[in-house]
Amino acid sequence: MEIKGIIHMIKKVVLEEIRNVKNDIEKKVKFIISKKIEKLRMVSKEEYEVQSEILSNIVKKISEVEKRIQKLEKIANFKPHYDD
């Protein structure tokens, strides 16, 4: 076997091993990041936007209810004075 052939075989094996190590590292890093994100309880941008919209609607409704309560309190405290 020629030296070029041996070098080619070694190069092929080494490159394959490098790809395997790269893939293993990527999988482990993705797993670790996934676990850290899960631990932080992060949400996707879409989920965040949906929750923000829901919260905004709730705040608006609470504000409306507070205004209605204030009006009802004014009515309840209104005591007409009749002159006899």
Automatic annotation (TrEMBL):
InterPro entries, A to Z: UbiK
Superkingdom of origin: Bacteria
Pfam family, one: BMFP
The protein's name: Ubiquinone biosynthesis accessory factor UbiK
